[in-house]
Amino acid sequence: LQVPRTPSQPAAGSESRRFTNKHSKKALKASLTLGILLGMFFVAWLPFFVTNVTQAVCGCVPAGFFDVLTWLGYCNSTMNPIIYPLFMRDFKRAMGKYLPCCRHSGEPRPSAISLSMRNSNSGPRAATSLKNVL
């Protein structure tokens, strides 16, 4: 028993494959970004925590070495604002929208009034009554 194929079926299959490929690429990119961030976090902070426990147990860690490991962790925290825009398009757009150093020349600058109205609840809205809220 065979069902005859219509011309729309192969197009739907290719569209479904394209949809799957698009989402699998996004998932792969998200996994890669997360892997890089977590990898950098462990490389930077794990030696600090191991040394901290070692220092508590035996007290044999030189103060200068402990300071170097602490600053390695601080450098990891400094790298996060650099890593996020490299791998995340939404983060890059947000930085470009609100930071003057990252904005393209043709983009309009948001005014302080529009930012404050967007962040507060005092913008124009429909009248609400207690009955509508409850």
Automatic annotation (TrEMBL):
GO terms for molecular function: G protein-coupled receptor activity. SUPFAM superfamilies: Family A G protein-coupled receptor-like. Residues 113-134 are annotated as: Disordered. It is found in: Cell membrane. Keywords: Cell membrane, G-protein coupled receptor, Membrane, Receptor, Transducer, Transmembrane, Transmembrane helix. Its main location: membrane. PROSITE patterns: G_PROTEIN_RECEP_F1_2 (PS50262). The chain crosses the membrane at residues 27-48, 68-87. GO terms for cellular component: plasma membrane. One of its GO terms (biological process) is positive regulation of MAPK cascade. Residues 1-84 form the G-protein coupled receptors family 1 profile domain. It is a multi-pass membrane protein. PANTHER family: ADRENERGIC RECEPTOR-RELATED G-PROTEIN COUPLED RECEPTOR (PTHR24248), DOPAMINE RECEPTOR 2 (PTHR24248:SF185). This is 5HT6R protein. It comes from Smutsornis africanus (Double-banded courser). The gene is Htr6_0.
